[in-house]
Amino acid sequence: VQLQASGGGLVQAGGSLRLSCAASGRTFSIYVMGWFRQAPGEEREFVAAIKWSGSRTTYYADSVKGRFTISRDNAKNTVYLEMTSLKPEDTAVYYCAADAQLPVTTDGRYYDYWGQGTQVTVSS
Questions:
Q1: Taking the chain, what is the end-to-end CA distance rounded to the nearest angstrom?
Q2: At a CB cut-off of 8 Å and minimum separation 6, what does 47 contact?
Q3: Which of 96, 77, 76 has the alpha carbon at shortest distance from 34?
Q4: pLDDT digits (tens, 9 = 90+) for 52-85
Q5: Residue 29: phi, psi to the nearest 5?
Q6: 101-124: per-residue pLDDT in tens?
Q7: How would you class 23 by CB atoms within 10 Å of its CB: exposed for 0-12, middle for 13-18, buried for 19 or more?
Q8: How far apart are CA 57 and CA 67, in angstroms?
Q9: Hey, how many other C-beta atoms are within 10 angstroms of the C-beta on 100?
Q10: Which pLDDT belongs to residue 41?
Q11: pLDDT tens digits along 20-52
């Protein structure tokens, strides 16, 4: 499975961005898609996750709940992260990841495939 993330950029606080993650290859092996982020000097942290098929139940970190929305378009093999009301503390490199098994987890160690990351910078 190959993952290609895009959509990052520079935005002012309060603004919005939409990240995309296109999956290719053995996409039938994917069970969960997630977004993680890593700020400079910080550990990688979970942002959001969604099952790749079936239920569209979503999972969010408390820090982004109510501001970020994860969604998927299986016809395009793409998962999105809609980010609104952005804050300077959202500044990080955002990574999409795919997990080849259930259950849905917020622990990045269980994700099998990772995209290259896209930079999101929120200015105050």
A1: 37
A2: 34, 35, 36, 37, 60, 61, 64, 68, 81, 94
A3: 96
A4: 999 999 999 999 999 999 999 999 999 999 999 9
A5: -85, -5
A6: 999 999 999 999 999 999 999 999
A7: buried
A8: 16
A9: 15
A10: 95
A11: 999 999 999 999 999 999 999 999 999 999 999
Residue 103, preceding bond cis, omega within 30 degrees?
yes
Tokens of 10: 């520079």
Tokens read off for 44: 């990688």
Give the tokens for residue 29.
């092996």
CA 8, distance to chain mean position in Å, is: 11
The residues, any chain, with a CB within 8 Å of residue 69's CB and separated by 6 or more, are: 48, 58, 80, 81, 82, 84
pLDDT value for 33 = 97
Classify 76 as helix, strand or coil.
helix
